């Protein structure tokens, strides 16, 4: 779970969060580019979750597998949910929704790393 894919996901999410929050401060609604960038972030998160699921079938499983799987479901669903909500709110608040969604993703990825780093004894 620790690796370049996790770092890339965290960095991309933080860069997009800064962009979306700047657009919110400038009173801009989410543009088509913003929504496509969120879709790209969702694709990156999907790859990360698929790699994590494959890792579940390996020899080093996390200590609390149920919590890990719960975080996996939350992580993969978070960005698409933010996209849907942002499309429903075509004002500056849609940009804020995308920004908050992008800020939460690094926290979820870090929590997945914490859970995965404690192997089953």
From TrEMBL:
<keyword id="KW-0472">Membrane</keyword>
<feature type="transmembrane region" description="Helical">
    <location>
        <begin position="6"/>
        <end position="23"/>
    </location>
</feature>
<keyword id="KW-1133">Transmembrane helix</keyword>
<keyword id="KW-0812">Transmembrane</keyword>
<feature type="transmembrane region" description="Helical">
    <location>
        <begin position="93"/>
        <end position="112"/>
    </location>
</feature>
<feature type="transmembrane region" description="Helical">
    <location>
        <begin position="35"/>
        <end position="56"/>
    </location>
</feature>
<protein>
    <submittedName>
        <fullName>Uncharacterized protein</fullName>
    </submittedName>
</protein>
<feature type="transmembrane region" description="Helical">
    <location>
        <begin position="68"/>
        <end position="86"/>
    </location>
</feature>
């Amino acid at each position: 779970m620790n690796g370049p894919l996790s770092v890339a996901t965290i960095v991309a999410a933080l860069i997009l969060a800064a962009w979306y929050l700047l657009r919110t401060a400038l009173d801009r609604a989410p543009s088509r580019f913003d929504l496509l960038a969120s879709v790209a972030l969702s694709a990156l998160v999907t790859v990360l979750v698929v790699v994590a699921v494959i890792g579940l079938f390996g020899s080093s499983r996390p200590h609390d597998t149920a919590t890990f799987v719960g975080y996996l479901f939350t992580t993969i669903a978070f960005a698409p949910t933010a996209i849907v909500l942002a499309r429903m709110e075509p004002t500056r608040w849609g940009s804020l929704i995308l920004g908050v969604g992008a800020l939460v993703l690094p926290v979820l990825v870090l929590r997945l790393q914490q859970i995965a780093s404690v192997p089953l004894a």
